[in-house]
Amino acid sequence: MRTGSQIVRVAFTYIGTVVGAGFASGQEILQFFTRYGWLATLTIALSSILFIWIGIKLMLMAHDLKAASYEDLNRAIFGQRIGNAISLFMMIVLFGITTVMLAGGGTVFEEQLHLSYQTGLFVTLVLAYFVLSRGIGAIMTVNSIVVPIMLLFSLVIVVYTWHSPSSGNWLRITSDDPLEKIWFAPFLYTAFNLAMAQAVLVPMGASIQNRSVLYWGGLLGGAGIGLLLLSAHYALSAQMPGIAQFEIPMGNIITRLGSVPQVAYLLVIYGEIFTTFIADAYGLSQQLQQRMKLNPKVILISILALSYVISQIGFKILLSALYPLFGFISVVWLVLMIWRNRNRAM
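Request: output the structure for the sequence above.
Response:
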């Protein structure tokens, strides 16, 4: 029973770390998958395989190396010089994503709850400090609460779409985009999310003693991410092409379901923002602890304070400026990691 519980906690933490605000809004799924028509079903399958394969590999390598942070892992994979350079860049990326997620939390409070942007930032920071000061176990507990809500929400959307006359669109819609663009999309999406997820997957892999827990947790988590992608794609496809004009495509679907699903949707969006925020802030703090001989709480407070300052720029501006660059670099990281470890057994 204890082993089964650990597997589920690992899986939920993996899912919660990967799934963020862009996923909940539907915009990520629309841009990387649904816009490409029926082929998106195949590219989602490819992305799911990568999430399972690389996710398990990352955690098992971290377990075997007893890596304190992803910097230790990158040094082992790429060597001291290249590993340090990659880790330094990833540290910058993590901080960038941390500020984007914090800004996203403020935007939810402002646009959905009609409270001030600053209130959203403050609430998110206080909750994050409470969780992060308690370590990886607390992060896994938060994900064990948030992820089931995400899964339930996805099930509701699938059931609603099932009765739609256009529910078969996910197997019929075609795209004029070139095949190379369609098949590159899942690699870009998976690479970016895995590069960020290593901030939590590595310390989680090192902290859990049982390798089989990591293997099955990675398998279940990667498959869960794939099912969430497929369910969102299924729902969005039924509303194509009109749904593509909305900034928050999933929100347009939810408004038709009534007030209770709308409240659940709000919880899902904020929960996904929060789990990504604490994951990236934790990974960043772990790496800084290896570089700076300061009290861990001082480092944590400094990260949260600096992310608050940068988040004043705003969610949309940060998102559009940082994500394309981070996505490209993440693909390079993924290719190098697969190449360097092609002969290493799982």
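The radius of gyration is 19 Å.
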